[in-house]
Design a protein that fits this description.
Layout (H helix, E strand, L loop, with lengths): L10 E8 L3 H8 L14 E8 L1 H7 L6 E4 L9 H4 L33 E4 L5 E3 L6 H4 L2 H14 L7 E5 L3 H12 L4 E6 L1 H10 L7 E4 L5 H9 L3 E6 L7 H8 E9 L17
Parallel strand pairs: 6-7, 6-9, 7-8, 9-10
Antiparallel strand pairs: 1-2, 1-4, 2-3, 3-5
Helix pairs in contact: 5-6
Bound molecules: zinc ion (ZN) (2 copies).
The site of one zinc ion (ZN) has 5 residues, from loops.
Length: 276
């Protein structure tokens, strides 16, 4: 593909590293199929190769700066953007998320799995310190999700008992975030052998208790270890339909349940709406 030409309002990124997430896997296997060719990769970190003068001013950057690229673009002008809710931008959305734009939309290089990535005028950039390894910096996406789901959305407060369902990278990031926010007790759950290794390392990310729900009852385990049910439950499981019922059962009356996992399309066993 030809090297994109940079104007006043856009830029070109020399990619150093790009994360790999569940969405990439679904794109690769065809579960998520757009019906078009595209350059994947949406957890991109790199160095600004070229940046237009107006873009440099708007983003507060200069050529040579290391930045991370937020997957969704934002116009900065609509009501949602002004409220800080870039994800609900009226002008942008899934159709132009990085890593899932057709190659035949100019200039084609809309993804992080490439040497160069095009940065459109409404791109949102996050500064990355030069001292931070770009491979480590690709974790900005799951770590940001952990902070948002575990702390911002959940309103976790110092001393809270928190249960995190799912020990994937977002679950571990959530555990680290709530620990950092002062949670008093953190439980992380997983399911069987597929999660065993992650449960072993979960204490290094702030877990006081890890539970394999295949062999142990998480509600009893939490009561025994923390003395009570959870103030905050964050469900970040993938394709584990029973987790929603567990999440509700783990929350104390009046507690907060953040549903951030992927449900799949099947029914939700064990979920009792009357308890909500
Ligand atoms: Zn992703
Ligand atoms: Zn907007």
């Amino acid at each position: 593909m030809p090297r994109p030409r940079v104007g006043d309002d856009d830029a070109l990124l020399r990619v150093e590293a790009c994360g790999l997430c569940g969405t990439d896997h679904e794109q690769f296997t065809g579960t998520l199929f757009g019906g078009f060719a595209f350059v994947p990769g949406h957890e991109t970190v790199g160095v600004l190769e070229e940046v237009g003068p107006r873009a440099a001013e708007r983003w507060g950057v200069a050529a040579g700066d290391r930045v991370a690229v937020v997957v969704f673009q934002a116009c900065r002008e609509c009501d949602a953007c002004r409220a800080g809710d870039h994800r609900r931008c009226a002008r942008h959305g899934l159709r132009d998320m990085y890593g899932f734009v057709p190659v035949d939309r100019e200039p084609g290089l809309w993804g992080g799995y490439a040497e160069l990535a095009y940065l459109a005028p409404d791109t949102v950039l996050v500064p990355v310190p030069p001292s931070l390894d770009p491979v480590v910096a690709t974790l900005f996406n799951p770590v940001g999700a952990g902070i948002q789901w575990g702390v911002t959305v959940a309103g976790t407060r110092p001393g809270d008992v928190v249960a995190v369902l799912g020990p994937g990278i977002r679950g571990l990031s959530t555990a680290a975030a709530v620990r950092d926010a002062g949670a008093g007790f953190v439980m992380v759950t997983g399911l069987g052998s597929r999660d065993a290794e992650r449960l072993v390392i979960a204490p290094r990310f702030g877990a006081d208790l890890v539970v394999d729900v295949e062999t142990d009852d998480p509600v009893r385990a939490l009561r025994d270890a923390a003395g009570r049910l959870a103030d905050v439950v964050v469900d970040v499981t993938a394709n584990a339909p029973a987790a929603l019922g567990q999440a509700v059962a783990l929350a104390r009356p009046g507690g907060t349940v953040v549903v951030a996992g992927m449900r799949g399309t099947g029914p939700v066993p064990g979920f009792q709406p009357d308890v909500v």
